[in-house]
Amino acid sequence: MSLPEGRGSACFETSELCIGYGPALIVQELDLSIPTGMFTALIGPNGSGKSTILRTLSGLHTPKRGTILLDGKSIASLPLREMAKRVGALSQGPVAPEGLTVLDLVRQGRYPHRSLFSQWSEQDTGACEKALSLTGMMNLRDQRVDQLSGGQRQRAWIAMTLAQETSIMLLDEPTTFLDLSHQIEVMELAANLVRNGDKTVVAVLHDLNQAARYANHMVMLKEGKVIASGPPKEVMTAKVIQDVFDVSAKVLPDPVTGTPMCIPIPGT
Asked: I want to staple 155 with a disulfide (CB 3.0 to 4.6 A). Which of 103, 135, 172, 210 is the partner?
């Protein structure tokens, strides 16, 4: 994916970040850099800390130690509402209240920009219309969320996140439980938001080949540590896959895109 010149400086930077629940540390001494204006995929085995890192970057989980900088400023100094104006986060498997329409859901994305007694504005309407248009959900705006297909539902949630008008979007396993066609639908949408929408997208993904095909930047994690990070062609190597997943594999060019493609070798 080609990107305009000048994009790629770090939006998020962490230093000696330690994250855990209770006494257990899941992530230790994490130094991580997320480039601006790119699609970054966080990859690693279950329990490697991917979703925990994403929640912590969004400000929803407080680290035990270390620092997180957002455009050079510590997120610890930013109120939650201010963070929500700058970073949109979509958790894994979100559930909408029964009977909620797509438009009702998308309108909830305007919460960070509105005070308790403020009137609905033309700016709010414009943000929702743009979000519906970008995600191809305009003709489903009056449909109930619980009546949508899996791919449509995920696009509705992404539209809600887009309505926040943030420059950064954090997506936790956005393709989980979707069939192949809906996975492609969501991944194409995320890639297009980076390519055409001037967004930074960070997604936790499980499929190595999908990540390499759609992401500009990959971060391979194991036991809360970064094993490799950079462009897919540099990160997705047989050695890294062996080190991270303990799986022998051949890495070949994808016959469609030329991006690296992992072929596991059985019995090795």
From this structure: 135
What is the side-by-side order of every strand in the sheet holding 87-90? 87-90, 168-172, 200-204, 39-43, 217-222, 225-230
Q: What would the two tokens of residue 156 be?
A: 């509705």
Judge contact between 238 and 248, C-beta under 8 A: yes
Burial of 145 (0-12, 13-18, 19+ CB in 10 A): buried
Burial class (CB in 10 A: 0-12, 13-18, 19+), 89: buried
d(CA 161, CA 225): 28
The letter for the amino acid at 113 is H
Q: Counting Cβ atoms within 10 Å, is residue 159 exposed (0-12), middle (13-18) or buried (19+)?
A: buried
CATH code at 52?
3.40.50.300
The 3-state DSSP class for residue 202 equals: strand
CA separation for the pair 80, 85 (Å, rounded): 9
For the chain, give the percent of residues with pLDDT over 90: 74
Q: Which residue has the tokens 């060019």?
A: 253
Answer yes or no: is 1 within a domain. no
Show the domain range for 104: 10-264
Q: Is residue 166 part of a domain?
A: yes
Within a 10 A sphere around the Cβ of 3, how many other Cβ atoms?
15
Whether residue 236 contacts residue 256, with contact meaning beta carbons closer than 8 Å, is answered with: no
Taking the C-alpha atoms of residue 214 and residue 76, their distance in angstroms, rounded to an integer, is 31
93-113, pLDDT tens digit by residue?
888 888 999 999 999 999 888
